[in-house]
Amino acid sequence: MFSRLLAAALLAAPLLLAQAATAKEAWNAPSAKETAKEHTAKEPSVAQSAARERQKKCGAEWRALSATEKTAQGPKWPQYYSKCVKRLKEQKA
Predict the structure, then answer these.
(1) pTM summary value
(2) Are the C-beta atoms of 54 and 81 separated by less than 8 Å?
(3) What is the mean pLDDT of residues 71-76?
């Protein structure tokens, strides 16, 4: 009796291991929704690219200012950024 149970367990072990590996792969596989998002990503428009460049330039200028210069330019980032964007748009035009 014991030998039959042992033989059945030995025969079933590879099947159980294969099922476990398949389940692990299925769990880690990206969903259809995730793969669809990757394929639908759009390139930024010209206006979005220009806005991003202005944000980068203004941010670099803000980080380069000392504390006293920041106070003189505008006490906080939003005020400084608003002035900086206006200035950059005027320079471009």
Answers:
(1) 0.53
(2) no
(3) 78
d(CA 65, CA 69): 6
d(CA 66, CA 40): 43
User: What is residue 7's three-state secondary structure?
Assistant: helix
DSSP 17-62: HHHHHHHHHHHHSPPHHHHHHHHTPPPPPHHHHHHHHHHHHHHHHH
Q: What is the pLDDT of residue 57?
A: 96
With a CB cutoff of 8 Å and minimum separation 6, the contacts of 82 are: 74
Average pLDDT over residues 41-61: 93
Rounded-to-integer distance, Cα 64 and Cα 84, Å: 14
For the segment 31-49, the average pLDDT, to the nearest whole number, is 78
Give 68-74's long-range contacts (Cβ < 8 A, gap of 24+). Answer: none
Amino acid identity of 23? A
